[in-house]
Design brief:
Distance between the termini: 80 Å
CATH superfamily of the domain at 14-105: Type II secretion system (T2SS), domain F
Shape: elongated
GO cellular component, one term: plasma membrane
Order of helices and strands: HHHHHHHHHHHHHH
Strand content: under 5%
Pfam families: T2SSF
CATH topology of the domain at 14-105: Receptor-associated Protein
Number of strands: 0
Largest sheet: none
Radius of gyration: 28 Å
Structural class: mainly alpha
Family: Belongs to the GSP F family.
Helix content: over 70%
Organism: Trinickia dinghuensis
Membrane topology: Multi-pass membrane protein
Amino acid sequence: MSVGGTGKPPRTRARDVTAFTRQLTGLLNAGLALVQALELIAHTARRDAMPHVAGGLARRIAGGEPFASALAAYPAQFDRLYRELSTIGEATGTLALVLARIVEHRERAAVQRGKLRTALAYPCAVLLLAVAVTAALLAFVVPTFQQVFDSFGAALPAPTRAVIAMSKLLLHWGPASLAAFGGLWLALPRLVRHAPRARAALDRALLAIPAAGALVRTVAAARWARALGTLLAAGTPLADALRALSQVTGNTVFDAASARIEVRLRRGERLAHAMRAVGCFPAEFVEPIAVAEESSALDTMLLDCAALAERDADEKLALACACAEPLVVIVLGLAVGALVIALYLPVIELGNVV
């Protein structure tokens, strides 16, 4: 595939788009025209698809299209927020400054996603290890003990009978269950991506989880507030800015709330009142925004609220990770210990009889 060809570009990662935006910002700040900067990026030896995208953008802009309109030809790379900010930057002659804000916004979101993955990695790995060890004991160790117990000809304790029943259940249904789980694991991401109702149901379920729901709500509200604050700081009218927040939070509940808030604002309601009405924003978000509306400092307050929420989310993630690690280890120890005790109870009872 040639750089800047007309074929459909392959999928790109979020960090590739961020790197492209950072590079474009630097070239514009160095004094290059937009088309020249895009053509320069198009001929760089990068391994991702962004040189191809840059070439397509350069051709469209050279043909007379505005930058934001050219971006719309690549919706997988440039979301609505990106295009809305670019429109403002191009109209006001501050495209480099706006692109720098986009880079900052995307990098903050990437850092937050990285912290979330890091916090979940160890507990999930230990939990998977616990499941694997327990399944191995039930599938390979318990049947061996069962043969020994059958030779005793004596009644087995209730815990031992329960473990043997679990072993038989695993041996009978384990392969089919594993195949079904693997199929579900592979199909679920596709279902969530392509079935809006499934995605909405999953997002509602995440918000309803007792402990994790508050964290998910805080993270989504922080993304919403930072995106809206960035748009307002760039000069976007409030109602128009809300229309651009259709896919910035990663949660369909908040994305739908943006649309409902926009409708209420166009009817004459204040932002804080509309946020209370939709019912998904934490109270600590709504009250400062109500004050900021009176002082005409809404964009600054939104960015401050986002920063505080991100800090709160980081603290909750750190606490959850610190609590989850020993908890998972304890659960693993209890599970293995219970199996061992259940298997050795008949041996102990037989020794007492002898």
